[in-house]
């Protein structure tokens, strides 16, 4: 706790997600003092300083540790999360780290172990759980039974391991709604877009939307999972979709919830009128997409847990279970696993 009781915060990594989902919600808070912002590049820090009026910027990670922040946000690339999260935890900071936790199960375990040993909070950025439609659907089924859950996320992008990096959101939601996984089936493939048909048919490698040609990585991934609750779940991602779209449907016991992210939810109960909620149109017409996707509430949860010492919903130990499910899915699909 710093000046006038403010929480002293550090931000490690200033890529797209920092700008879209964290900095806007942190700079506006009068209970937060941003004491360090770290990037590898001066150019990135100049931009952050100009946009948000933050002066405490550095390219030296040691200087972040020296500031002894109460809370740190680790927002770098996935494989570098443990490199920054663990020293921060060990030097006394609570850490909110973006998903996936790391690119190996061992690294993810080490992050959880570091938090347990030092009594610090490790929270992972599974922001969907904090988004209103997803949370309301969860409450809708608290007194019911989930029999099937289908989580679909599609968009147009492409880089190695992007499907695994993203399907972890779907898998975490499946676990949240359905329980712990039993059997797992998965397959990965590529989708051709704008690629001449003969090439598409003769070349079985996945296709990259960005190059219009074969990609050396998978662009779609589907997993089917049975859960200890008896529920069955499907997670699907496709990165040659032409547009971003996220849809989740949960059914069972005479009920269905359909979420069209980020802002629409339909709750269906047998024999009753449907309840339709459009958050952009009703609750808060000024809400940004990042807010609707749960990022603002996620920041609030982290800061509140720091003060109250409550364990966050998406704590490291729980997130590790989603990482283990991701590892199983990758192995089943024959794509690089988390080893
Ligand atoms: N929750 C969500 O819905 C969501 C959405 C998007 C992304 N994410 C996650 O957020 C994380 C960051 O993603 P992003 O989209 O912001 O972009 P990113 O390209 O994955 O990386 C963010 C920043 O990390 C820095 N960086 C790159 N390589 C590095 C290295 N070897 N060591 C240290 N820093 C390095 C770069 O900044 P400098 O060059 O300035 O150092 C880069 O701008 C990822 O884990 C991603 O999966 C989550």
What would you note in describing this structure?
It is a single chain. The protein has 339 residues and is α/β, with parallel strands linked by helices. It folds into 2 domains: 122 residues, Rossmann fold (3-Layer(aba) Sandwich); 179 residues, Dihydrodipicolinate Reductase, domain 2 (2-Layer Sandwich). 36% of the residues lie in helices and 26% in strands. It contains 11 helices and 14 strands. The strands form 2 sheets. It has an 8-stranded mixed beta sheet, with helices on one face. Strands 3-2-1-4-5-6 form a 6-stranded parallel beta sheet, sandwiched between helices. A hairpin with a 2-residue loop joins strand 11 and strand 12. Helix 5 runs antiparallel to helix 11. The radius of gyration is 21 Å and the shape is globular. About 5% of the residues have low confidence. Bound molecules: NADP nicotinamide-adenine-dinucleotide phosphate (NAP). NADP nicotinamide-adenine-dinucleotide phosphate (NAP) binds next to helix 1.
Q: Summarize this, please?
A:
With 339 residues, this protein is an alpha/beta fold. The chain has helices at residues 16-27, 42-52, 61-66, 81-90, 105-118, 132-140, 162-178, 197-202, 289-292, 295-308, 316-333; strands at residues 7-12, 32-38, 57-58, 71-74, 94-97, 122-124, 148-156, 181-189, 220-227, 232-238, 240-252, 255-260, 264-269, 275-278.
């Amino acid at each position: 706790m710093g000046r006038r009781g403010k929480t002293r915060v550090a931000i490690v990594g200033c890529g797209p997600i920092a700008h879209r989902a964290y900095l806007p919600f942190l700079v506006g808070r009068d209970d937060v003092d941003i004491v360090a912002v770290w990037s590898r590049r001066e150019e990135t820090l100049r931009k952050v300083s100009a946009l948000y009026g933050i002066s405490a910027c550095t390219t030296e990670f040691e200087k972040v540790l020296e500031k002894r922040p109460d809370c740190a946000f680790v927002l770098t690339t996935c494989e570098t999360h443990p490199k920054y999260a663990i020293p921060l935890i060990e030097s006394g900071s609570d850490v909110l780290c973006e998903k996936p936790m790391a690119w190996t199960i061992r690294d993810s375990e080490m992050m959880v172990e570091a938090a347990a040993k030092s009594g610090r909070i490790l929270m992972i950025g599974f922001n969907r759980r904090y988004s209103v439609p997803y949370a309301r659907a969860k409450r809708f089924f608290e007194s019911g039974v989930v029999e099937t859950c289908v989580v679909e996320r599609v968009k147009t992008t492409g880089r190695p391991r992007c499907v695994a990096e993203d399907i972890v959101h779907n898998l975490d939601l499946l676990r949240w709604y359905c329980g712990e996984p039993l059997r797992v089936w998965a397959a990965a493939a590529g989708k051709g877009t704008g690629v001449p048909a003969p090439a598409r048919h003769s070349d079985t490698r996945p296709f990259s939307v960005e190059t219009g040609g074969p990609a050396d990585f998978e662009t779609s991934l589907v997993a089917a999972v049975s859960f200890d609750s008896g529920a069955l779940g499907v997670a699907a991602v496709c990165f040659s979709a032409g547009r971003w779209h996220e849809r989740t449907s949960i059914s069972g016991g005479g009920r269905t919830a359909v979420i069209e992210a980020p802002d629409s939810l339909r709750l269906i109960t047998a024999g009753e009128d449907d309840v339709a909620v459009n958050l952009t149109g009703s609750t808060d017409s000024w809400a940004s997409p990042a807010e609707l996707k749960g990022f603002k509430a996620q920041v609030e949860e982290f800061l509140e847990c720091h003060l109250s010492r409550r364990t966050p919903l998406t704590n490291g130990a729980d997130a590790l279970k989603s990482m283990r499910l991701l590892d199983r899915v990758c192995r089943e699909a024959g794509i690089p696993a988390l080893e």
